[in-house]
């Protein structure tokens, strides 16, 4: 069911949980397929963001398979 524009009610605000520890929750995502990839063929980017600190890490990957992603995650976690 679609509500007409301007008729949607407001939703009460809720308390957000306090993030008391760095890297307790993180967001991991892929950016790609980059068509303007360099000669090395790294066409995907694996990104990692710490929700509490907004710390960002990124690593370029040539393909998205289990072994390559695992190596990328290990590379990122070893820098933190």
Helical/strand content category: alpha+beta
Work out the helicity level: 10-25%
Count of strand segments: 3
Strand order of the largest sheet: 1-2-3
Mean pLDDT: 85
- Radius of gyration from CA coordinates: 19 Å
> Can you tell me the overall shape?
flat
Low-confidence stretches: none
Please count the helical segments. Answer: 1
How far from one another are the termini? Answer: 46 Å
Compressed to H and E, one letter per element, the order equals EEEH
Q: Approximately how much beta-strand content do the residues carry?
A: 25-35%
Q: Could you describe the largest sheet, including whether it forms a barrel?
A: 3 strands, antiparallel
Structure report:
This protein is α+β, with helices and mostly antiparallel strands and 80 residues long. It has a domain at 24-58. 18% of the residues lie in helices and 25% in strands. The protein contains 1 helix and 3 strands, in the order βββα. It has one helix spanning 66-79, and strands at 26-32, 44-50, 56-61. It has a 3-stranded antiparallel β-sheet, with helices on one face. A hairpin with a 5-residue loop joins β2 and β3 (56-61). It is flat, with a radius of gyration of 19 Å. The mean pLDDT is 85.
């Amino acid at each position: 069911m679609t509500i007409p524009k301007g008729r949607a009610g407001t939703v009460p605000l809720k308390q957000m949980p306090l993030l008391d520890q760095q890297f307790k929750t993180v967001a991991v995502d892929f950016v790609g397929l980059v068509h303007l990839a360099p000669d090395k063929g790294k066409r995907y980017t694996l990104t990692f963001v710490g929700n509490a600190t907004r710390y960002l890490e990124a690593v370029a990957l040539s393909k998205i398979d289990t072994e390559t992603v695992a190596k990328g995650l290990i590379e990122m976690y070893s820098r933190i």
